[in-house]
Automatic annotation (TrEMBL):
Region (Disordered): 472-500
Lineage per the UniProt record: Bacteria, Bacillati, Actinomycetota, Actinomycetes, Kitasatosporales
Highest taxon of the lineage: Bacteria
Pfam families in the cross-refs: NAD_binding_9, TPR_19
Organism: Streptomyces javensis
Occurrences of domain FAD-dependent urate hydroxylase HpyO/Asp monooxygenase CreE-like FAD/NAD(P)-binding (ranges): 18-173
Protein name per Swiss-Prot or TrEMBL: FAD/NAD(P)-binding protein
InterPro entries: FAD/NAD-bd_sf (IPR036188), HpyO/CreE_NAD-binding (IPR038732), L-asp_N-monooxygenase_NS-form (IPR052189), TPR-like_helical_dom_sf (IPR011990)
Length: 920
């Protein structure tokens, strides 16, 4: 198929994509189209055609009743297949900070989420995608073929206009069910509500004082929601359906899905029933609950359905469909509890049967007759509400748009006449081919997929459709090096290390600035990196660097989102170096520490000149580094990469830090001063010098040098609080308590330090000061905890942050918080399990004054602490806690031995006085 003329970013765009329907499916497609186009810089015009006042809500998520909740947990409702936590994070940032992935959110909130995410995608694609919102219905679609062979759609709109498009996506949602089942006398009554979701449809039944009973025809999820809305004292809500079953409830504490051990595809329907029953029985015996068994069938449902014959599908729908739906599409626990209360109070009653007849009463209400398994039943009701749900047979639809496509042969009915026939979402015409660029998703594909109406399925289909729609229009990626002889040569911009970047010059400039600030440990890195990806949303390294500093440096970054963007972008436009770096970041964020370290070592072996990767590898101040127990791996990396960096200030700064880790303090000081002479703002060099002064016991000189640097070259440093913390260590060693209090007030108190840095620096200093007897009066650790998000305190991503969370919680005497952190650590990576969890247990012993147990636990942990990362000076706080526990347990001789050993390494007036006191 020939493509239209390509668009120019500086001129009008001749390519148009129409998305018909702006509910959930339409919003998900539009999000994917905008974001994919922005990454690939593919300009086009997007037409969103839907009469609703707000895009994203559709029928399902427009309800204002707060009792109506999603029937899928929030953790499975993200817009993005590759970022499952996106909706949960959105809720946390929009008024529900305590929400968890297993919660069932309000449906109206989900509509707001879809609308907001779509709005953000449109804004991010400005300059690439032009969006027009047409608040009307599409009533017809006709195709013509231009002389070049390019199909063009003409969409007829309900307001009389027509628009043309090169690509059309039909995101119309479920088709409305026919009310042909209703007795003729009922269909003509104004007491028959055919669409309970239509604006104002239930107003009469909800009027004050209105208590007439109501009959709901259908007992599925729609019926449950409407029953809760209509519920009131004195009213009974009746429900009738062929099966008479209400949906089952989700478990309050759900178990993981259990996959079926028996292959199910290709079995006859009878054999399939038997295999599924056996699967459910096995899971019941193992877990005591059938739900994991049903959930375990979800990944293979479409395959099983596809393997059935037409006759078997029809038999399944007729005989098993109701039972499947009530167990597969379940109620949230809170909804089930509300329904249970209504049934116990007899305000809700259900019947297995059908509505046989209806007649009007003198007061305008209705008398309905039901045919049930228990015999005929007559009920006086005020209203009858059609809750039978969407229609299955699209071929019976009265929708004029689908009717026009079916009538002209542009669409074919799907299996069992449910939905339409497609090839991966692209509609098949009467000739069986897919010659028209016309796609659909969600409910219209039910005949082919059976399960296709939930967000997890629709979002995956949306991503596939966006790729199919934009794929032929995607411009070829720029060459990795200079172009061939037949093209004008192009040179890619480079990063600070001279490595080529797959982006344009403006984004590369912003990226270099961000990396430069990271290497100098200066503020503004996150802002510069954000600008790089705003200028080029398809710039993988920009997204990866943002994910990295959010994960390891506590920057205000949506880490999963940035990482997902990096992984999408790197698949579309990247060279080997960029793919390797994104893999490094992915493994450090998503995998155990050993995987991340191995990937980083491989990357540096291939690209030893990559300064940002080298900064990540060395545990100095910005990143947690390689997490080996003795630090030798990081040292070998620094020494092995030296030829690629020469004697540059950055590499010299890292070497200085590693030399002080080796105890070669004089050499570390010389190297640090050399780096500072070349780049006075080098935070890494100053950090190495601070450690050298502290570990060699040169406290007065170290304090003066730090204060001078902070007042001048370090003014724009991103970790000023950490350098102040170093100065405060000198204050404590010199027993200058007035300096400690002053430094706290001026440089380390909350309001001057936030988030992770408040835990790592401010919180740890407070506890050191209290253990040293250097803090009198009110103890402001609560202020520190208030600045740290709850997930950082109790669900930290790294062992290094977890260490400082444990310290802060202990300093605050927060025993429950400490226990929650221990539970998290036991479920986290190996370092948190083996170090942080027992550390929390030892700190619990301290809070409960089990001094001997605390001392034994901390003694066992000390050799394993280097695996947490950070510096020896930071980890020393655990030894301070051990000394405190030893003295409190009466083991003064053991405390004296530890202090004497430390004084052999490093002079400290404070340690000397403590040793003297213990010896007297």
């Amino acid at each position: 198929m020939a493509s239209p003329e390509p668009c120019s970013t500086s001129g009008p765009c001749t390519r148009t994509v129409a998305v018909v329907g702006a509910g959930a499916a339409g919003a998900l497609v539009a999000i994917q189209l905008c974001e994919t186009a922005a990454r690939r810089r593919v300009p086009f015009e997007l037409l969103l055609i839907d009469p609703a006042p707000e895009a994203g809500r559709g029928v399902a998520y427009s309800t204002l009743d707060r009792r109506h909740r999603l029937n899928v947990v929030a953790g499975r409702m993200s817009c993005y297949p590759d970022d499952p936590g996106h909706f949960v994070r959105w809720l946390c940032h929009h008024g529900e900070p305590g929400v968890r992935s297993g919660d069932f959110a309000e449906r109206y909130r989900y509509g707001a989420y879809l609308a907001d995410t779509l709005g953000r995608a449109i804004m991010a694609a400005q300059g690439v995608v032009t969006v027009r919102r047409l608040r009307t219905r599409a009533t017809g679609c006709h195709w013509t073929t231009l002389p070049g062979g390019d199909p063009r759609a003409r969409l007829e709109l309900a307001d009389g206009r027509t628009v043309e498009a090169h690509r059309v996506v039909l995101a119309t949602g479920p088709s409305r069910a026919s009310s042909a089942w209703a007795p003729e006398e009922l269909r003509g009554s104004d007491r028959f509500i055919t669409d309970p979701w239509a604006p104002g449809a239930l107003d009469a039944a909800l009027q004050d004082g209105q208590k007439e009973d109501v009959l709901l025809v259908g007992t599925g999820l729609t019926s449950v929601d409407i029953a809760m809305t209509l519920d009131r004292p004195g009213r009974t809500v009746h429900g009738v359906s062929r099966g008479g079953r209400l949906p089952q409830a989700h478990a309050v504490d759900p178990l993981p899905a259990a996959a079926c051990a028996t292959p199910l595809r290709g079995l006859s329907l009878a054999a399939l029933r038997a295999a599924v029953r056996q699967h459910i029985g096995r899971v019941m015996r193992t877990h005591g609950d059938w739900r994991p068994a049903v959930d375990g069938l979800r990944p293979v449902t479409a395959e099983i359905w596809a393997s059935m014959s037409t006759a078997e599908r029809a038999e399944f729908v007729e005989q098993d469909g109701s039972l499947w739906n009530t167990h597969r599409h379940r109620m949230p626990p809170a909804t089930a509890e509300a329904v249970g209360r209504m049934r116990r109070a007899r305000r809700m009653r259900t019947y297995q049967g059908r509505l046989a007849s209806a007649s009007a009463r003198p007061d305008g209400s209705l008398t309905v007759s039901l045919t049930t398994g228990d015999g005929p039943r007559t009920l006086p009701v005020g209203w009858v509400v059609d809750c039978t749900g969407p229609g299955l047979r699209l071929s019976d639809t009265a929708d004029p748009l689908w009717r026009s496509l079916l009538d002209q042969g542009a669409a074919l009915p799907g299996p069992l006449s449910m939905g339409v026939a497609t090839d991966h979402g692209r509609l098949r015409g009467a000739d069986g081919g897919t010659t028209r660029p016309l796609w659909t998703l969600g409910a219209p594909r039910r005949g082919e997929l059976w399960e296709t109406t939930a967000i997890p399925e629709i979002r995956a289909q949306a991503a596939t459709i966006a790729e199919a729609v934009l794929g032929p229009w995607t411009a070829p990626a720029p060459p990795a090096t200079g172009g061939g002889t037949a093209r004008r040569r192009t040179r890619r911009p480079t990063d600070t290390s001279g490595l080529p970047l797959s982006t344009h010059a403006a984004a590369a400039t912003a990226y270099r600035l961000g990396v430069d600030r990271l290497l100098k440990v200066r503020t503004g890195a996150a802002q510069a990196l954000r600008r790089s990806v705003a200028l080029d949303p398809g710039f993988a390294l920009g997204h990866a660097a943002l994910a990295l500093i959010g994960h390891e440096c506590g920057a205000d970054v949506d880490v999963p989102r940035a990482l997902a963007d990096a992984r999408r972008a790197v698949r579309e436009r990247a060279d080997a170096h960029e793919r390797s770096f994104v893999d490094v970041v992915s493994r450090r964020v998503l995998h155990p520490p050993a995987d991340g370290d191995a990937a980083l070592l491989r990357h540096l072996a291939d690209y030893p000149g990559d300064a940002l990767a080298l900064a990540v590898a060395v545990p100095t101040i910005a990143f947690s580094g390689l997490r080996d127990l003795d630090g030798t791996t990081a040292l070998r990396v620094v020494e092995r990469t030296a030829p690629a960096h020469g004697e540059g200030w950055f590499h010299t700064s890292l070497l200085a830090f590693m030399r002080q880790e080796q105890g070669r303090y004089d050499e570390a000081g010389v190297l640090a001063e050399r780096a500072l002479a070349a780049e006075p703002a080098s935070g890494h060099a100053m950090h190495a010098l601070a450690h050298a002064h502290y570990e060699s016991g040169d406290h007065r000189t170290g304090r003066v040098r730090l204060e001078r640097w902070l007042a001048h070259q370090g003014r724009g440093g991103t970790h000023r609080a950490h350098f102040s913390w170093h100065a405060a260590l000198h204050d404590l060693a010199l027993e200058d308590t007035a300096a400690v209090r002053r430094r706290w007030a001026e440089q380390l108190s909350p309001g001057k330090v936030y988030g992770v840095r408040a835990l790592v620096d401010s919180g740890s200093l407070l506890w050191r000061a209290r253990l040293a007897g250097a803090w009198q009066g009110p103890f402001p650790i609560g202020d520190v905890l208030d600045t740290a998000p709850a997930d950082v305190l109790e669900r930290p991503a790294t062992a290094f942050v977890a260490l400082h969370s444990a310290i802060a919680l202990t300093a605050a005497d927060d025993l429950p918080g400490l226990r929650r952190l221990r539970v998290h650590a036991l479920r986290a990576d190996e370092v948190q399990r083996s170090v942080i969890a027992p550390l929390c247990a030892a700190f619990e012993d301290i809070l409960e004054e089990r001094w001997a147990d605390a001392a034994r636990g901390l003694e066992r942990l000390l050799p394993r602490l280097p695996g947490v990362g950070g510096s020896a000076a930071q980890r020393e706080i655990v030894e301070e806690a051990l000394l405190y526990a030893l003295v409190s347990a009466g083991r003064c001789e053991a405390a004296r031995d530890r202090l004497a050993e430390r004084l052999d390494r490093r002079s400290s007036p404070h340690d000397r006085r403590r040793l003297t006191a213990l010896s007297s």
